[in-house]
Amino acid sequence: MDNPDNRIGLILALSSSAFIGSSFIIKKKGLIRARASGNGAGDGGYAYLRESLWWLGLITMIGGEVANFVAYAFAPAILVTPLGALSVIVSAILADRMLDEKLLTLGKVGCALCIIGSTVIVVNAPEEKQVESVQEITDEMGSNLAFQFYAACVLLGSLYLIYFVAPRIGKRNIFVYVTICSIVGSISVIGVKGLGIALKLTFAGNNQLMYGSTWGFVVLVAVSIMTQMNYLNMALDTFNTALVTPIYYVIFTTATIAASAILFRGWSGQDCQSVGHPDVYSGPTPPQAQGRREDPTTTMATTTADVVCSGGYSGSALLTCLCGFLTICSGVYLLHVSREEANKHAGDDEQVLRTAVGRQASNQLIAMSTFRESDDIDSEENELGDDRRALIRPV
Known about the structure:
This protein is mainly α. It has 11 helices and 2 strands. It has a two-stranded antiparallel sheet. The protein is elongated, with a radius of gyration of 34 Å. It starts with a helix and ends with a helix.
């Protein structure tokens, strides 16, 4: 983390996680209010557009996305993207406080694992190859057949899920909406990175707004973000927030790292060169000229090599970051299991309460029935007594 750009990207990524994690909860409360009107997002309605809480959540998410957007211009995707796990922690804590979605001990362990994994990635994040213009990114996209194949799979896969799978099982299977958000988001990260680099170079004096590729990135980012927002709203309105957030994080992060590694050939290692230079002479006398006997007290110059790397991901750094990412995934999984346990306990408590209420109501009915039978017997005895008295009355 010696690179100052990486430090800036780290701060922006942490801020982004805090804003985005909070936005999930705020938007969820707005969606709950909208659903009360009978026209929720899960049913295809747009009543949430009239809720101020939803708009506040959207503004908070935009703030987080802007910070995330700028972070990609300063730091590699393998550093910025996994730090999104911190948004899972923020949303889990706020859901416990604001939505009564209890965070159990297992969930707290998951939060700790997410923090540990994020720390491992931050400490070992590799340097990224410096990009001098947006044209370099577009040239790489045009010449990289592997990335073109990946982009085609994302486009065709997302269209298939949107038009054929989501209408049939989208409301029953959480992975449908979340997968659409995630794979489209992996392409949007590429667009965000390209646009962020364009703006960074433009502000530095190297105008990139004259290139059509810059505006192409603008269109790509706009379309992908609108698609993500729509299907993320549907996922949040249909399923539990504590389930949507971690699953979205894992799939999105995996797809983003894969897309970045394919495009920038992250697995190929660092492009390093040895640059030699003479060491400074030391000793009481200068070096001897050629052909003269060497003075034993003189230290001759030696040539050493400095290794200068232009960027890329070395094997060891990539492996370490992969271990950190797997640690984060383990923490996210524990958060998911913790939420399921909390829901199960809540269901058990509700069942116990219903059973207790049912028993109490049953006892009351039995008591009322017994009381009525007793009243009926007393009435019959009174009538029988009246009849007997009428029979023995003298004529």
